[in-house]
Structure formats: structure tokens, C-alpha cells
Design a protein that fits this description.
The protein is an alpha/beta fold. The protein contains seven helices and 24 strands. The chain folds into two domains: 81 residues, no CATH class; 243 residues, no CATH class. 28% of the residues lie in helices and 32% in strands. Helix 2 packs antiparallel against helix 3. The chain is globular and about 60 Å long.
């Protein structure tokens, strides 16, 4: 039996159609894989095992901080009792770990031997890509915030005694809510700021809840003020973000054409689409993120970004620095270089601490006894 075949090759439209289909299918599969990975991470963070691990690590942190003279035998006993791993490196830094499964764990870091260091000496004098550079485990967006807040409360809010327990985003937001209730700072609802064509915040302001600004809605915080958002922040394309903003949640900026000339403290993750312009030579952008940063293609400007992991696409040109505890993944045409024009005398105005507390590099020598730790997080 003969099988009849058309001897003509496939026409160009059909070839293009198949190509588009394959590319579309690949993109769909990749999106599905990313989606599934986020679902897995979400499921882990919502699981009872995860919360138990966080509780165990937190208990170990609290006990170690309250009993700094514990012997090795006592630390081992505590480790066995809580079913956590407690290790100490050569600089006296404790690493407390609780396993969730074979591939995931909850980790926290703590040190009782600390030193006060100028932030430019330990971070901003580097671009973060040097082989000799390593970001200290105790430098996170949360510890940077806790180093800045006491000066801000005393100098900017004119409150004589700053609370000693402004160690976490929740601590800061609870305190700001109290100040708003007392009339010391302003309070605004999410709906109020969302109705503004241009969202302008002229004074220190607290918002309880998520903020969702539509397309072409700028968010501008006046110099000398801070906007505290106790929730997520979502913006869309053609947006300018200016000023100092602290977000106790995730930040997502959808679609294209975004300009950020600001300092952003973010408790969760940061996701930004294409075409991002960061800072200026006179006012760099600072982005301090507890979780992960994901930025697509075409990023340029003056910026310093601190995060657990950072992922960027193609065509990246940043003057400043990229600093991560784990990974910095990027595509093609990526250039990161040190900013030689940074004016450190302006850091306070940018809501950035001029000095930070880290573990000492000489634990047997002279050091402070302040306890510094990071909140337990999934790794």
C-alpha cells in the first residue's frame, strides 16, 4: 500500500506558527515551574513543621542571649533538647539551624561579640562582586532598620528615649501605630492614599494595611519623612517612587517603566518588571530586602541592594552595589561598579544608618557585648 505524501516542504507561515507555539509552550512551562516553586515555598512556610522549627530556633536564640556564659556542654544540651544544631565559627558567630526536610531548613545567626563599624567601610566601599567581599550574616534589612530607628526616633521625632526593642519590622510597626494613636505621627488609611492621583506623603505617616496604587500613580514621600506601611505595597507601570518607605510585607511593581529614587526597607520579597531606573548620582536608591529580589530586564542607575537572593535579567548597569547572603543570578550585559561619588554625610537623610553593628573579627580582643541576631528564616 502506498502512502501518499505531499512533497512540498512546510511553508513559512506554518514554520513560524510552530516556532511561536514552541516558544510559547516553553515560556508557559517555565512560568509554571516558577509558580510551582513559589507554591512549594508558601506551603512550607504555612506548615506546622515550619512554625515548629521557627519556634525552636527562636527559643534557642532567646536562651543563648539571656545566658551568654554558657559552656559548650550546656549549649550541646540545649541543642539536643530543642532538636536544633548550634554551631559557632571562629568569629564567635552562632549559627542555629532546624531542619524541616532534606532540602529546607530554618536558620538564624547570633553574636554577643560585636563591633560598631561605619557602613561604608563594610558595605558601600564594595560593589559586592569582589571575590574578597562577603556580606556578614548579621547584616540584613531587619538589622539595618534596627540600627537606624533609635537615631530616627530621637532626632527626627524628638522623643528623648527610643525603645530598646525595635529589633524587627513588627516591633517598628507596632511602635509607629502607638505613635500614630498618640498623634505624634500621622495616620492614613489605604483607601485615602489609593484615591490620590499622585500619592504625596508630607509627614511621618503610618498606614495599617496593604496599599495598591494603579497605573500612572506616583508615590512621593517628602524629604525628612518616612512612610510606614504595615502590609504589602503594589504599584503598576509608569510609576515614580520617591522618598523613604518601610514596608512590613512584599513589594510588587507590575509591568514596565518604573523609576525608584528612594530608600525601601522590605520585610518580604521585591518583584519588579522591565525598564527600571534606579536613583541618581545625587540621590542613590537603597533597597534592603529580608527575602528575595527579582527584577526583569533593562535596569540602570545608582543603587545599593541588600537581600537574601537577587535575580536579574539582561541589560543591567548599576553604579553602587549588589549584596546577597546566598546568590546573585543574572543574564547578559550586566555591569556592577562601585559608586565613587557616594556622599556618606547624607545617609541619615536617606534613612540609612551611618554605623552598623556586626560580629567582631577579633572575638578574643576588645569588643562590645551587645547581642545581635537575625530572625529565623527559611533557607
Amino acid at each position: 500500500m502506498n502512502i501518499l505524501k505531499n512533497k512540498k516542504g512546510m511553508g513559512l507561515p506554518m514554520v513560524l506558527g510552530i516556532t511561536v507555539f514552541v516558544i510559547g509552550l516553553s515560556a508557559t512551562l517555565m512560568s509554571y515551574i516558577v509558580f510551582q516553586s513559589r507554591i512549594v515555598e508558601y506551603d512550607i512556610e504555612e506548615s506546622e513543621t515550619y512554625h515548629n522549627a521557627v519556634s525552636d530556633v527562636s527559643t534557642a536564640l532567646n536562651y543563648l542571649s539571656q545566658n551568654p556564659e554558657m559552656t559548650d556542654a550546656e549549649i550541646l544540651s540545649l541543642s539536643n533538647y530543642l532538636n536544633v544544631v548550634i554551631e559557632q565559627n571562629e568569629n564567635g558567630l552562632y549559627i542555629i539551624t532546624s531542619l524541616i526536610n532534606e532540602t529546607n531548613e530554618v536558620v538564624s545567626y547570633m553574636t554577643g561579640s560585636t563591633q560598631i563599624t561605619d557602613i561604608d567601610d563594610i558595605i558601600f566601599d564594595f560593589d559586592g562582586t569582589e571575590e574578597t567581599f562577603e556580606l556578614s550574616p548579621v547584616i540584613t534589612s531587619e538589622t539595618l532598620l534596627s540600627d537606624y530607628m533609635p537615631d530616627y526616633v530621637i532626632d527626627s521625632l524628638n522623643i528623648s528615649n527610643a525603645p530598646e526593642d525595635l529589633n524587627t519590622y513588627d516591633d517598628v510597626m507596632n511602635y509607629m501605630e502607638d505613635l500614630a494613636n498618640d498623634g505624634i505621627i500621622d495616620e492614613m488609611s489605604s483607601s485615602e492614599i489609593e484615591k490620590m492621583k499622585t500619592a504625596v506623603v508630607t509627614d511621618n505617616t503610618y498606614i495599617d494595611g496593604d496599599v495598591d496604587l494603579k497605573r500612572d500613580r506616583d508615590l512621593i514621600v517628602s524629604d525628612g519623612s518616612i512612610l510606614f506601611i504595615d502590609g504589602d505595597l503594589n504599584l503598576q507601570r509608569d510609576t515614580l517612587v520617591y522618598g523613604n518607605i518601610i514596608v512590613n510585607g512584599d513589594v510588587e511593581i507590575e509591568r514596565n517603566d518604573i523609576q525608584i529614587v528612594a530608600t525601601l526597607y522590605i520585610q518580604g520579597d521585591l518583584v519588579i518588571s522591565n525598564n527600571l531606573e534606579l536613583g541618581t548620582i545625587d540621590r542613590p536608591t537603597f533597597i534592603f530586602v529580608t527575602g528575595n529580589v527579582e527584577i526583569k530586564n533593562n535596569v540602570s542607575g545608582y543603587a545599593y541592594i541588600v537581600a537574601e537572593n537577587i535575580e536579574m535579567g539582561n541589560n543591567i548597569n548599576i553604579i553602587g552595589g549588589i549584596y546577597t547572603h546566598q546568590s546573585f543570578d543574572y543574564g547578559e550585559n550586566v555591569y556592577i561598579e562601585e559608586n565613587l561619588s557616594l556622599d556618606v554625610s547624607k545617609l541619615y537623610d536617606y534613612a540609612v544608618p551611618t554605623q552598623i553593628t556586626t560580629e567582631t573579627d577579633n572575638p578574643d580582643g576588645t569588643s562590645d557585648s551587645e547581642i545581635v541576631f537575625t530572625y529565623p528564616k527559611l533557607k
